[in-house]
Structure formats: structure tokens, C-alpha cells
Amino acid sequence: MLDHSISHIVKKLFDIDLEKVVIEFPKEVSFGDVALPLAMQLGKQLKKNPREVAEALVKAIEAERLPEIAKIEVAGPGFINITFTPEYLIGQIKGGFEKFQQENTSKKILLEYGSENIAKSMTVGHLRSNIIGQACANMYKALGWKVTSDSHIGDWGLQFGKLIVAYHLWGDKATIEKDPINELVKLYVHFHEEEEKDETLTDQARAEFTKLEKGDIENKKLWQWFYDASMKEFHELHKILDVHHDTELGESFYLPWLNHIVELCKEKKIAVVGEDSSVYIDFGKGKQPLYILKKDGSTLYSTRDLAAIEYRLTEYPDLKRMVYFVDYSQRPYFEQLFATAKKLDWYCDFTHAYFGLVRLPEGKMSTRKGNVVYLRELIAEGIKRAQEILEEKKVDLPDTEKEELAKMVALGAIKFGDLVHNRASDVVFSWDTAISFDGDTSAYLQYTYARIKSIMRKGDYEEKVVNKVVFTLPIEHHLLSFIYRFPTIVARAADTYEPHVLAQFLLHVAALFNQFYNDVPVLKANNDDEKETRLYLISQVANTLKNGLGLLGISVPEKM
Ligand code: ARG
């Protein structure tokens, strides 16, 4: 509506066809609900002073007497700040994600996250991939995209040759069956120790892997056993984390297409066959080539990734975006991979949504193996700590509910401690900061939500639209204005695959609410209309916190 009127005015005043009216949020919420940078943009185009352009625009918009606008003014170098009527904001809030959903209905995105390795424990690195990836998948769904999530399981490669050799030499079936992943990891580590003393082990491993590649029945059986045991464990952890994948097409899934990929690259003349008969993609002088076939004829990680891309583009026609949630150590690799896809004329917006490492301050809470932290232990420790805090805070709930709550708080802390930071930066995870009730934590948000719910119960408030909005204080409008931003914030966070934008926003909302609740009586408001308005406001804060945290994969308690 506003968009239309503005485009119309711009056409009339300056004879310019606007593609889109860009809407920003002003730095200070007291400046207005939205800020349009339009005059700056037009000023450049028209070679005019942006302030003058802004003034002309404001005058024309005012003349239209749009019912949703309560106040409009020029600010700074030429921003147009608009304050809407509360009724308009409430209507927009009620519409939720509708506007975005209409815009995005036919857009398809594939998000790849998780991608654990068979016979290896899930690490905090895979944890980040799952948490950030799932949060993005949730956001894209809310925004109306057609979302597919896939886990590119690491289930192929020489490591299986090594495992098979190790199993034959030192493995014990019964022990492995009791605790598959840990035992397999032990075997793998032991293999590497022994390999340093005995080089023939490497050749044996190669031979076993070749047998596996050629379809040897015994080796295939072992592989399947390792695969099933590992997947069982990953699935258990995914369930705890509320992580879902539509498909889990591991590297081995793409084996039937690997020859074709190598041939295709040769045919299109983008691959070079080396003297040793290895095959690689050449990116020019001084640049690292990307190998897709080893000299012994075996394929690589990259070959399987190329096959995966071709498969996905065929399986999901008109796929618009393909996103990989993988740590930043693989950045150079993904750059090569995407460049190769481009050479192959495979069209799609590829993104490597990379993330930094998680570090733990030394301490006995983490069982470390190298720098690996096992997720199960992380979760167990979190629950223990959450229980302690709930005791300390004298949270008054029946035991079973308290247990559930401890789990919710612990998982929230683990996820939020990750999602609140820019994904590209390294995270130093510390329980003391992650699980506290104050500061930038999920426990603080969960607590704020439960607090609002308790006020609503006391006020006998049932969710409904207010009959009569009575605002007496600026902070009431500010709160409403913030709630109105929610879907746009989600859209921004999704667009750059940065859930921290949403996490930070939720912290702002909670802070503003707490300021409001400190200063303004809700249940003891002056009259029924005021009370009703304020209860409506806080109920919307609660909704925003619940929905926002929900998108981040975090649940909220009704009582705390
Ligand atoms: N399995 C790999 C690892 O744990 C990550 C796979 C990333 N995805 C991909 N398509 N290459 O390091």
C-alpha cells in the first residue's frame, strides 16, 4: 500500500519508475517506525540535494493523507522517517509473515547441514552446522520458501579401508556392538599410531578400500555395519537437538555418477589429464587445481560434491539457492567447487555459509580428545548445570516439570550460545555465561517469556485483538514498533544465513520489555482500556519471543 503510493508519487514528481521501495529501521526507535533512504537514492540519480528531494516527497505524501501515517518528517541528510498509527502496526503484526510468503511461494532452496562422518563422533563443529543450518531452514520455511534439507554424510573414502584393516587386526565384534562409535574411533586412532611404525598398513588399507569400491561382499557388510551404527547415534542426537533432514544422501550415494562427472569435465574441456593420469580442474597459473580423479583412478571428496550438485539441480528444477553449512577451514575448497560448477554452466546461487570454531576454556567439563568435544557430554553437563541454577533460583515446580525445564534451559544455552554470535567468528563457549539468567542468554529470554505468561494469567488475558488502543507513553509505541519489525528481521537474517541477527533482535525486544515492565503498571493500569492495551502489547512480546526462539530451535516454558 505505502509502497504503491510512494512509487506513484515518485513517478509523478520525477518521472522515475522505482523497482522497489527500500525500507529501513531508524537507528533510534523514537525517530519513527521506518526510515526511507529513498531521497538519497533519487538525489544521486537526479543530481539534486537529497534533503530537497526528501522535502518534496514528504509534501506529496502528506497531500495523499494516507490513513496509516501518523507522522512523517525529513531527518539527517535526507531520510524520510515515518511513524505509523498503532492500528496500522497492529494489523501488520497480525499479518505476520504473509507478505513474505506471497513473495516467496515459488522459490526453492536447498540447505545442507550436519554432514557428519561415519565411524567418527559428532563434534562441536557438526553441532554448529546442525544448529545454524536448522535455524536457517526454519526461517526460510516461515518466509514461504520451498525448503529441502540434506545431510552430506561422510560415508566414503580411504578411512573405511583403514577401519576394515584395523577391525581385522584388533577389533572385537561384541565390544563394538556395545559402544559402536567410541570403539570405532579407538580403532581408527590406533590404526594411525601403528601406521607410523608400519607403512605397509597404508597399502593394506588402500587394498581394502579398493575391494570395497569394487563391491566386495565382506567389506560391504562391514561398511554397512559401521554406517548403521553411526547413523543410529547421529539420529539420537538430532532428535535431542530437534534437527531434521529431508534427505541424508551421503557421499556413497553418488558413486554411480562419478565416472560421468569425470567424463563430463573432460568433454567440456574444463579438466586436464595429468602425466600421471590424475584428472584436475585447472584455475590458471598460481592457483591451486581441484583434483577430481587420483592417479590410481579413485575419486575424491570433490568428485562426489560435483555429483551431488548435478543430482540436486536435476532433482529440484529451478533451485534458486544451494547453501553449505560447513566450517571455515573448507573455504578455499568451496570456492574451487563453486567455480567448477560455474564452468560447467550449472546455474544456482551457491553459498558456503561458513562458521568459526568453538573453543572451550580448559576445564573438566569437556572430555577432550585432541580438540574434539563430544556432544553428549556437552548436553549432560548442561542439564546438570541448569538443574543447579534452578535449585539456586528456587524455581518452584514439580520434579518432572523441573527436569523438563532443566533440559530446555540446557539445550537453549547450547544453541543460543552459538546462534547469538556472528557465525563467522570463533566462539568461546563457557557455561557460566551461557546458562545465566542475566545477560545475553536464552535462559534470560525463556525467563522473560515465562514472566509475561504469568502476568497474562494473573490478568486473565486471552489473546485477542484490542478493541481500543490507548497509548499514553512513548515506550508503548516503541514496543509495538519493535514487534512489527519481527518478520523483516527474520528475512534479513535468512538472506545472509545469519541467525545472530534474529538472536540479537530478540535480546533487544526482551530488554525493551523489561524496561517497560519496570516503569509501567500493566495489571494496575489507570483504566480498563489502558490495561487491555498493555496486556495486548506484552502478549505480542511473548509471541515474538516464542516464535523467534522457535525459529532458532529453542523452546520456551510457560512457567519458570
Ligand atoms: N563430512 C564433512 C566433514 O565433516 C563435511 C561435508 C561438507 N559438505 C560437503 N558437501 N562437502 O568435514
Task: Describe the model.
It is a single chain. The chain has 3 domains: 2-84, Arginyl tRNA synthetase N-terminal domain (Gyrase A, domain 2), CATH 3.30.1360.70; 108-364, Rossmann fold (3-Layer(aba) Sandwich); 375-551, Orthogonal Bundle (Isoleucyl-tRNA Synthetase, Domain 1). Mean pLDDT is 92; it is low at 363-371. The chain is 56% helix and 10% strand. It has helices at 2-14, 38-46, 50-64, 86-95, 98-104, 124-142, 158-170, 173-178, 180-197, 200-213, 217-241, 258-267, 301-315, 331-343, 375-392, 399-419, 431-434, 442-458, 474-495, 499-519, 528-551; strands spanning 34-36, 69-75, 79-84, 108-112, 146-150, 271-273, 279-281, 290-293, 319-324, 349-352, 358-359, 368-369, 372-373, 427-428. With 560 residues, it is of the alpha/beta class. Helix 1 packs across helix 3 (50-64) and helix 18 (442-458) runs antiparallel to helix 21. A 4-stranded parallel β-sheet has the order 5-4-9-10, sandwiched between helices. A 3-stranded antiparallel β-sheet has the order 1-3-2. The radius of gyration is 28 Å and the shape is flat. Arginine is lined by residues 112, 115, 117, 152, 154, 305, 324, 326.
